[in-house]
Design brief:
By secondary structure, this protein is of the alpha+beta class. Helices cover about 50% and strands about 10% of the residues.
Amino acid sequence: MRPPDEIFWKEFLPGLRGVLAHALRSKNYSQPKIASILNVTQAAVSNYLATDQEHYMSRLEALGIPKTDLEALVDSLIFDAAVSPVKSTQTLMTAWRNFLSRGYLCDYHRRLYPELADCQICLLMEAALTPERLSILRRLEQGLELLENFPIVAYLSPEVSINIAEALPNAVSIDDVAAFPGRIVKIKSTLRAVSKPTFGCSHHLASILLAAIRHNQEVRAVMNIKFDEMLKEAIKNSGMSFTETKQNNLRRDEKDVVSAVEEVFMNISDIDVIIDRGGIGLEPATYVFGRNAVDVVKKVIKIARNYVGLIQPTDPAKE
């Protein structure tokens, strides 16, 4: 037996821990806290920090994983470290399955075991999905491709990062909603998904979408972006219908936001954009709704164009 899991334990995880140790240290995490996040000893953290970060990154790239994918994973894991070990583990394992299904590790695995020259097991991991679920995943990937082709959307990325979710018809649970595990993170001036979309991975955005679907079956997708007053002006200029949630108090959590969004849909079932101004410790957010993932992304691109036009007005002297 020659499973690729051997590569995970012997090469991938140690290299990733090395990169993360340096990344967390740059965020002023203490060595005991880094050790807890990485689930290693403080002595191991010291050893990781004694070796240059690029050494570990090069080891990971040597496995066949693109650097941009690795950077997106690291950024997402840093964010998830502040949430919970469960969230970071989910992001890690989803990303690993994604790397396998994209064939990133095939060449390295075959060099270790030449007898696996004709193996396509990892490439076929999605074969068990129904056509309906596969079509949603494909649309999410198309939406991501649009985002990558329009880097101006990076201007709209919130602190919690962007995500897109699309639901099955008559969706009733989070398992009926697909999104990008670990979110779509901002790498320099571009957006990059940590891994391929999958079902049941986004609790908050899926809950927002399910709340909308209960009152409008035509709404099947949602995308979150940041909020500021300039963005509100950009939405107006885009000609989209929008409103704001009601805030009963500043001490709110994600469940309160979901309830506030559902209240909007109870009163206005046909709406493009809903703004939530957040609260204490809760970042303001803008939710863009649509028929599917591609429809939502196109709306966000339109908003982004107007937003960039407002923050970077054309200089008449240069025309």
